[in-house]
Amino acid sequence: MTSTGLGLRDRVTRLVEAATTPLLPRDYLDLFAPLRSGADLRGKVVAKRHETADAVTVVIKPGRGWREHVPGQYIRIGVDVDGVRQWRAYSVTSDRAATDGTISICVKAIPDGKVSNHVVRDLRPGTVVQLDQATGEFTLPAQRPAKALFVTAGSGITPVMGMLRNHLDELPDAVLVHSAPTAQDVVFGEELRAMAATGRLRLVERHTERDGFLKPVELAELVPDLHERTTWACGPAGLLEALEEHWAAEGIADRLLIEQFRPRVLVTGEGGAVTYNKTGTTVESDGATPILDAAEEAGLIMPSGCRMGICYGCVLPLREGAVRDIRNGELTVAAPGDGVLVQTCISAAAGACDIDH
Amino acid sequence: MTVLQKKSDNPVAHLSAEDVEEIGRRLDAIRQEVVDSRGADDAAYIRKVIDVQRKIELASRAVLLLSKFPPAWFIGTAGLSVAKILENMEIGHNILHGQWDWMRDPKIHSTTWEWDMASPAEQWKHSHNELHHTYTNVVGKDNDLGYGIMRVDEDQKWIPLYLAQPLWNFVNACFFEYGIAAYDLELGKNLATEERRNDPKFKAAAKQVLKKIRKQATKDYLVHPALSGPSFVPTLAANFVANLVRNLWSHSVIMCGHFPEGVETYEKTSIEGETRGEWYLRQMLGSANISGSKAMHVMTGNLSHQVEHHLFPDLPSNRYAEIAPKVKAIFDEYGLRYHTASLPKQVASAWHKVFRLSLPNGWMAATTPKNAPQQVAQLYKLTTGGPKVRRAYDRAQRAQAEQALAA
């Protein structure tokens, strides 16, 4: 485009903005085309199908601004539950080649899960949801491993399913050890078994109601060559901790990649009143709840990202006070004027706090 | 109205302190019920209103592109007026109160919203949410009482300048959005002294308002007319009329909220150490409702439920109608006056007060066709006579009132 062209475009934009003030042109465009390019990233639910009794695959047509994801990555999705916007992270499970510009996530209803139960039971095709671009490091390297091991449990299969659907043919030797209460509870059970039947994947199903939870020692028996493999693991915190310990003890910690969707709470802070100076709000926050969650519960709009201490999308300056990292108990103290940047998603109040927001 | 504390027949004298706190507890319970049941239907409501409002505005502005044809002008102007009223009342006012913050939608949130109004949202939220809603009807504290330019209470001293207040009030009604902007800036106070004029805080705020006004005016009086090409002048006129209609409407609705005869006002000292129950009681008696149809409630931004709004400023406006009977039941049980009447009645009542108090206390009531010449002569004396004459008149009035009371 020529410089005159750019100038003209700028002028037109400015004119349209002058015509819509105090709103922006996009506030009107959103009424008619919420998925257009240039809009905040959103998606429309186009289909929903049950994988098991309590897990569904949700097929979403993302807006024009969607950038391709790498299989294994997750997206954050904002869904209105009882009128309140809730954000959660889910792995993208779809096959990039087979889908028609749509992506899929798989959601399993967890007990008392506000969002998961809503998605599984009430979310209707046609609903527009809020999205963030895919992110995450839990992916296959460009140089595919000669030998791969996937250890998953429950809905932990979802990022791995994304990898298998897209890249199984590029993996010369892949083993999946998956735990679920019973055979019926295996998310993507049929599809996984079909993959195994073609000989491209060695599938070990562990039905924990009968066999009990998987122990790393048993894993070593099931997969004798696990030392030679690069391992991707995703599942409940207990399983991941056990695997990390085992891999560390064997001296091969660098060959294990794990994915988790919630920070592991190891310690709790003391709690305290958190004041947000710009909104003039004070929120009483306990020592186990991240200040991000407590603030949102009180109706504040907070910056947020992964909600597990990774992406730094939630960072705000702590003007004064103390917070504790709920993952390791580390205390961060700010004196007036310090403005220490803290991650609100993994920090709980450890006394009265004054946050610049 | 005389402040409640000085009235001979104090409307809350029959309530014990325990009664007042019980009223507070019951109102808290009503509030909690609504908070606990806010949900998807409420969210759908506000989104629908916003959607409809924006579509009406777009359609009206589109029709106005052909405004040199009279039918297009009339339809477009009517539509734009309705859109501007909805935007200010049911949408803007209520979002800026934080009524919809619980949805956690950054696009419908009190901290991000900006409205089609001369006053920037930020400044209005301070003067309205923090000052008016806290100090409701407290003489000397609540600037909404007469907006600092009018006498709306017997306890405000009468000076001849107030004779012109019906005119002020009408001018203010026509240009209400600018009146509000000036009021949020506390323009009168801040322009009064050199020091205040040069206060960087005031200067920054004034600059912010001027910028907002420039943008608003550019949209309504330049860009939209220019886009109408040969219909430039009729479109400009249409925008002017729509703003005028919106201003007159919102001014009328807002006058009805606290100005009608019989709404209570309070002494400054009366709110020191006020309890939650007492605060509620002040709001109950300091507000007046407008009765009418569902459409009327929406067009007033549900400020027709002013009583409920002042008790619970942050509850979603669509729920006021549902709690109104429960609130009224509390008024009835405790022998309090639930002030409600139709829009024409409340507007007339508010204007009556504006006229009555533009004159010295008791003058209007004492004037009959028979004694009119003497009364006018007296008014002339009071107007031209200086403070001494007026003080003497006030003393005579008070003595008369005491005599009447003794009798």
TrEMBL record, chain A:
Its cofactor is FAD. The keyword Flavoprotein applies. Pfam families: FAD_binding_6, Fer2, NAD_binding_1. It comes from the Bacteria. The keyword Transport does not apply. InterPro entries: 2Fe-2S_ferredoxin-like_sf (IPR036010), 2Fe-2S_ferredoxin-type (IPR001041), Beta-grasp_dom_sf (IPR012675), Cbr1-like_FAD-bd_dom (IPR008333), FAD-bd_FR_type (IPR017927), FNR_nucleotide-bd (IPR039261), MRET (IPR050415), OxRdtase_FAD/NAD-bd (IPR001433). Residues 263-357 form the 2Fe-2S ferredoxin-type domain. Keywords: 2Fe-2S, FAD, Flavoprotein, Iron, Iron-sulfur, Metal-binding, Oxidoreductase. CDD domains: fer2, FNR_iron_sulfur_binding_2. Gene3D superfamilies: 3.10.20.30, Nucleotide-binding domain of ferredoxin-NADP reductase (FNR) module, Translation factors. One of its GO terms (molecular function) is metal ion binding. Residues 38-141 form the FAD-binding FR-type domain. PANTHER family: NADH OXIDOREDUCTASE HCR (PTHR47354:SF6). This is Ferredoxin-NADP reductase. The lineage of its organism: Bacteria, Bacillati, Actinomycetota, Actinomycetes, Geodermatophilales.
From TrEMBL, chain B:
InterPro entries: FA_desaturase_dom, Fatty_acid_desaturase. Coiled coil: none annotated. Residues 77-340 form the Fatty acid desaturase domain. One of its GO terms (biological process) is lipid biosynthetic process. GO terms for molecular function: oxidoreductase activity, acting on paired donors, with oxidation of a pair of donors resulting in the reduction of molecular oxygen to two molecules of water. Pfam families: FA_desaturase (PF00487). One of its GO terms (cellular component) is membrane. CDD domains: Delta6-FADS-like. This is Linoleoyl-CoA desaturase. It comes from Klenkia taihuensis.
